[in-house]
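Forwarding these from the shared drive since the link keeps breaking.
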Amino acid sequence: RLWKVQATANVFLGTLVVALALAFLPVSMVIYVVKEQEARQNARLQQFISGARPSAYWTSLFVYDFFLSVPVALVASLGVTFYMGNAAQLSLDGEQIGAIFLVFLVFTTCHIPITYLLSHRYDHHAKAQTGLLIFGLLSGPLLAICAEVVKVIQFYPKINNSNEWAAANVSSKY
């Protein structure tokens, strides 16, 4: 039993480290988007006046940010693979390592449109960086901590029938 608790704690800490590291990825993406719309630079408006289409502008940003996120996904998947092999004492084959890389690549790619949508809230790049970092830190690691606490404490009793659980909770309160 103690070995299971230690293994769970190791995997949780590894997950927390990766979640903290990935919280900084949208911060690096939002800098250029917000800086180009600032009144002092206004590079986006200059590109649109010069004849660049908005679809070309956003597609080029997406492609750049996608290629920026590929090494991050690769390093994160290699880190998780190394950590799972050493700390959690699990052996992974090539298919599982590829699946881990694909999950990280999809995760980092999904951050790109969300970052672009949230960038419209900000007028200054420093505020955008801070806001997205706080959002990333609260949405990733904090949710992982809450999920682990719920799993460890086991808030809900193990009852096979959900009607029995509802009846037990309702009757105990009235």
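-- next protein --
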Amino acid sequence: ALKLDDSLSNAGTESSGLFPLLATEAHVVLGYRTPGSALSLDDFIALSFLEHYLSGVLYNKLRVERALSYSPSAAFYDIDHVGFFDVGASVVIDKVDVTLAALRSIISDVIEEGPALDRFEIVKQGLLLGLTGTYESPDSIADLYAAWAYSIKTQNELPDYETEYRSITPEKVR
């Protein structure tokens, strides 16, 4: 967590080199390490789903309801030996602490209560509809082949994303 100090006397020591008088915004991020290619297909699908689910939740909670951030987001990166999942938001400096608390609360709610069923179904349908656009252009086909090559390399199989997304449940995402 980034801790900012509003006095110049400590600027640059514990404030990660950010000087409040020179900047008006900060990016607050909570990051979580994942095993990367060691993830099972079920975990990969769950984290991929969670990325889309949380992006919508963060938008509603941090932008629409609380006006803390214009474009909060969640992201999932799956790389050979390490993966990374993060949630973040760009905010004005004096809102860092309240935004960090809100991010933690949102993550805690999803862990404790699971995803809200109405939002869960909307995200599920969106992901399934997104698969229909996979073959629309040469670059999307190239992306698909790259994903297939990566899946074959890391999982030793060609995943059927449609079947995987159709079978996802709130319990799998929790």
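Residues 1-18 have pLDDT under 50 and may be disordered. The radius of gyration is 19 Å.

- D.
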